[in-house]
Design brief:
By secondary structure, the protein is mainly alpha-helical. It has one domain (4-18, 70-213, 255-337). It is 64% helix and 4% strand. The strands form two sheets. Strands 1-4 form a two-stranded antiparallel ribbon. The protein is globular, with a radius of gyration of 22 Å. The chain starts with a strand and ends in a 6-residue tail after the last helix.
Length: 343
């Protein structure tokens, strides 16, 4: 576990780095150059559509979010947040490569990636906040005091399945605006999303979240005090409570469920790429992912113990969502098989 990789100092010499500082000046210079190049290549309207949200969001992040994250030692670079950005970059890279072979130019894929990433974050965070609302808005605490914690994505707290509705809606709207084939576009980005998930699960491991149950196998992992597995074992009476004589002990060994999930997502991404030449209809690659990922998630949830049973069933909320996705996959295959194969 390595929740904080290092700190970025808030000042360089006497000059501030964040807020109205050096980083914002550098962002403004880069933004002007990038936007000018985009205008020259595509015109003002398309440049605004493609780069406007990204530039505005990154500028606002530098101006307001980064100063708020300063903990006195600087802005912490968290393992979870770093892996999240690496996941987005890797998934986009794979989608760009696949897009070239499927008739989508790099600019189109990059523009889609920005929208899907941002809306996926919104959905994943919203799902997490709703599921664990008592952590952010405990009884008796003014709701406005929980907002900074809700916005602190780098500290962890995303539910992958929560991103599906918002990311799917963003993809549909993107395809509709640009007159693109939605099934073909979904086939293009599906393996990249799995690759991103694989890298993101490494971030979960660094953060200590999404942990597994007790493990007596050689690869069982111990987590440090105050980590999510440690706190869970204290709550279950498996370890002394905070302040106890042995409270500094690390957790009992647990399954590295995060790494299992990373390997699983990586293998599914590879399988989706290998299946692409065999797909006979647009949408079949996405349908394959929609079929296999929920199955593996249901099995992985048996190992994880961080989510309790939900809605009066023996299944966790992720398993219940997986069942719904399997139904959607069955419908998708039924629709696809009614379509004529590609010529």
């Amino acid at each position: 576990m390595r929740s904080i990789l290092f700190h970025i100092p808030g000042r360089i010499g006497t000059l501030p780095l964040f807020g109205f500082g050096l980083l914002l000046a550098a962002w403004a210079l880069v933004a002007v150059v990038v936007f000018a190049v985009a205008v020259r290549r595509h015109g003002v309207a398309r440049a605004l559509a493609q780069l406007g949200p990204l530039l505005a969001g990154s500028g606002a992040f530098i101006l307001w979010a980064l100063p708020a994250l300063d903990d006195g030692a600087g802005v912490p670079v968290r393992g979870y947040g770093a892996m999240l950005l690496a996941a987005a970059a890797a998934g986009t890279w794979l989608a760009v490569i696949r897009g070239r072979r499927m008739g989508f130019d790099a600019d189109t894929i990059l523009a889609l990636a920005v929208e899907v990433f941002l809306w996926g974050l919104v959905g994943a965070r919203l799902f997490y906040v709703i599921e664990y609302h008592s952590q952010f808005f405990p009884p008796g605490r003014p709701w406005i005091e929980g907002i900074p914690a809700v916005l602190n994505l780098a500290a962890g707290g995303l539910v992958v399945f929560g991103s599906l509705p918002t990311a799917a809606a963003a993809t549909w709207w993107f395809a509709r605006r640009r007159g693109l084939s939605l099934p073909r576009l979904a086939d293009c980005i599906a393996p990249g999303m799995l690759l991103g998930l694989a890298i993101g699960r490494v971030g979960c491991f660094l953060n200590g979240c999404c942990f597994g149950g007790p493990c007596d196998l050689p690869w069982g992992i111990r987590f440090p005090p105050e980590s999510p597995p440690w706190l869970d074992q204290v709550a279950r009476g498996l370890l002394p409570p905070a302040g106890g004589a042995a409270a500094s002990n690390w957790s009992l060994p647990v399954h590295p469920a995060q790494l299992y999930a990373a390997v699983d997502a990586g293998l599914l991404a590879w399988l989706a790429v290998c299946f692409t030449p065999w797909a006979r209809r647009d949408g079949e690659v996405f349908a394959l992912v929609l079929t296999l990922h929920p199955v593996s998630r249901i099995l992985l949830e048996i190992i994880r113990i961080d989510e309790p049973p939900a809605l009066g069933t023996p299944l966790s909320i992720s398993q219940l969502v997986s069942v719904v996705l399997l139904v959607c996959a069955a419908v998708a295959w039924a629709v696809l098989w009614r379509q004529p194969p590609r010529g």
